[in-house]
């Protein structure tokens, strides 16, 4: 059994590293391959605990309700295409039903493989940025780090992944897993975990996903609190608090998108792209979208919610209805570029009505209940990452993000061993 487990784990790692070079793949897809590999050991049926069982049922019902919302859609083809992004809500719970024993027995291995995949992808991104920074000018090799390592380098397609937020969520969750291992697993090679944590921090800084920057620091501050409650070491806790606060100050003052957040709320800002061309530095002023447009889009979404709160407008028609409403409200940039709602809660209630929205909230509530009941640090961190991203992004219209949400929640719910209960030493 153990030998088979190792074979499947190695196969999963091979798949992780082979598909990571394709831009449209994400860490969530890698995690799915990992689960297929580890769960392929043995098919067994076992009754889940009630909270986990309720979570899986709610996920399945969420998919069913969204599938039924196609009935209320005029554009059935678009509805089926959009439903494809929600397939993880049907597939992953069914896998968990079938392989519940293996999920419980191998969840640490799954987390380890996930972290390895996240760190490997981070290294690939950094190497790609480094390579992009070298230029040959008049026969000489010139290194310009700004070109490859600008704060928004993922938006210049240097990332190997298509969606910034999904990748950033994976990195933040990987950081949470590393901190969890340091706090509760008592590892022998702590220096490896510290190095991995440093890499995660660097990647979040470079990715410049504002939502996940703040999610990372919420996780860190929660970790300091857990450290104090678990070990009751006041001076160590204060030192950690100061270190995290200092790191937050660095992000707040040096990260371009976080630094200019207050300006983006009220007005447009200009960024200057610097590229090397024949040895000269050329400035290309470029207007960046202000954050204030999100408040306008949310206001439009709330207005739609009033019209469609009962049955929803249907998963096939939501984009068209939203775009028309943008035009009516005079949000021309959102209309022209076809922006989504940038708020998953509003979008779900508008798309699938009070039943679909209620099921999404139920999933989050059940996870929170499980985290409180089991003092599950990792699940708390997962809820922070997912909850903040769904508040500021329309996550579930992408397959990779849906897959991450479903798998990360179910996997985190398994991390509730006795060593997770707070113990004073």
Q: Short summary of the structure?
A:
The chain is mainly alpha-helical.
Fold and architecture overview:
With 425 residues, this protein is mainly alpha-helical. Helix 3 packs antiparallel against helix 5, helix 5 packs parallel to helix 19 and helix 10 runs antiparallel to helix 11. The longest helix is centred in the N-terminal third of the chain and has 33 residues. The strands form 2 sheets. The chain has a two-stranded antiparallel ribbon with strand order 1-2. The chain has a two-stranded antiparallel sheet with strand order 3-4. 70% of the residues lie in helices and 6% in strands. The protein has one domain. The C terminus is likely disordered.
Give the strand tally: 4
Give the CA-CA distance, first to last residue.
Answer: 37 Å
Main β-sheet description:
2 strands, antiparallel
- The helix content is over 70%
Which descriptors apply to this entry?
19 helices; globular; 70% helix; 4 strands; two-stranded antiparallel sheet; 425 residues; mainly alpha; disordered C terminus
Secondary-structure map:
Blueprint: H1 2-19, H2 27-39, H3 50-68, H4 76-84, H5 88-98, H6 100-132, E1 134-137, E2 140-143, H7 145-149, H8 164-185, H9 190-207, H10 210-231, H11 234-254, H12 256-259, H13 261-266, E3 269-277, E4 280-288, H14 292-308, H15 318-329, H16 332-337, H17 344-374, H18 377-392, H19 399-414
Helix pairs in contact: 1-2, 1-6, 2-6, 2-19, 3-5, 3-17, 5-19, 6-8, 6-9, 8-9, 8-10, 8-18, 8-19, 10-11, 10-18, 14-15, 14-17, 17-18, 18-19
């Amino acid at each position: 059994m153990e030998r088979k487990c190792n074979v499947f784990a190695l196969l999963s790692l091979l798949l992780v590293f082979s598909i990571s070079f394709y831009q449209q793949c994400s860490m969530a897809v890698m995690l799915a391959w990992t689960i297929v590999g580890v769960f392929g050991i043995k098919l067994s049926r076992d009754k889940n605990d009630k909270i986990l069982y309720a979570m899986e049922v709610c996920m399945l019902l969420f998919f069913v309700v969204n599938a039924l919302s196609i009935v209320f859609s005029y554009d059935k083809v678009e509805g089926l295409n959009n439903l494809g992004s929600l397939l993880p809500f049907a597939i992953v719970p069914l896998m968990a039903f079938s392989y519940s024993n293996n999920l419980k027995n191998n969840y640490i291995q799954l987390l380890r493989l996930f972290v390895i995949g996240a760190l490997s992808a981070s290294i690939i991104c950094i190497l790609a940025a480094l390579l992009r920074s070298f230029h040959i000018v008049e026969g000489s090799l010139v290194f310009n780090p700004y070109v490859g390592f600008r704060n928004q380098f993922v938006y210049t397609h240097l990332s190997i992944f298509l969606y910034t937020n999904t990748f950033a969520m994976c990195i933040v969750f990987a950081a949470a897993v590393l901190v969890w291992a340091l706090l509760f697993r008592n590892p022998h090679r702590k220096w490896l975990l510290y190095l991995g944590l440093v890499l995660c921090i660097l990647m979040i800084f470079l990715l410049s996903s504002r939502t996940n920057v703040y999610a990372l620091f919420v996780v860190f501050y929660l970790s300091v609190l857990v450290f104090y409650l678990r070990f009751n070491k006041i001076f160590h806790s204060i030192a950690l608090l100061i270190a995290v606060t200092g790191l937050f100050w660095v992000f707040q003052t040096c990260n371009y998108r976080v630094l200019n957040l207050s300006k983006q709320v009220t007005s447009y800002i200009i960024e200057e792209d610097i590229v090397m061309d024949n040895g000269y530095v050329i400035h290309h002023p470029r207007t960046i979208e202000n954050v204030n447009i999100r408040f306008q889009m949310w206001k439009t979404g709330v207005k739609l919610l009033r019209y469609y709160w009962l049955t929803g407008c249907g998963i096939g028609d939501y984009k068209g209805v939203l775009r028309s409403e943008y035009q009516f409200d005079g949000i021309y940039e959102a209309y022209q570029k076809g922006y989504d709602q940038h708020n998953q809660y509003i979008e779900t209630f508008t798309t699938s009505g009070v039943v679909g929205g209620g099921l999404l909230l139920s999933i989050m509530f059940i996870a929170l209940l499980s985290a409180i009941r089991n003092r599950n640090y990792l699940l708390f961190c997962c809820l922070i990452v997912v909850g903040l991203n769904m508040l500021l992004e329309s996550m579930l219209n992408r397959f990779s993000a849906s897959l991450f949400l479903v798998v990360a929640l179910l996997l985190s719910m398994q991390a509730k061993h006795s060593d997770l209960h707070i113990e004073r030493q």
